[in-house]
Amino acid sequence: MAWNREAHQGHAIRQLQNVWQATAAGAAADTNITVTGAKIGDEVKAVEYTAGVPGVVIASVTAVNVVQVTTATTGNTVLFTIYPKQ
User: 0.85 exceeded by the pTM?
Assistant: First the structure.
């Protein structure tokens, strides 16, 4: 089966059209952070801003509208990028 670039690009574009972002106050490691709209199965990427400097943190959706990060982000803002499950 040959690779179909147009079909692959179309799939990628459809996935990106549903990506959304939210910010929330940080919390202690493994603490529930409310991110309204997050669903089980969504992929989440998180960036913590410490004194204006971004740093990647590991995050996961653990329940509907709930995200947890594995490291303490207390006192900082966290930007979550949500890639909805297809």
Answer: no
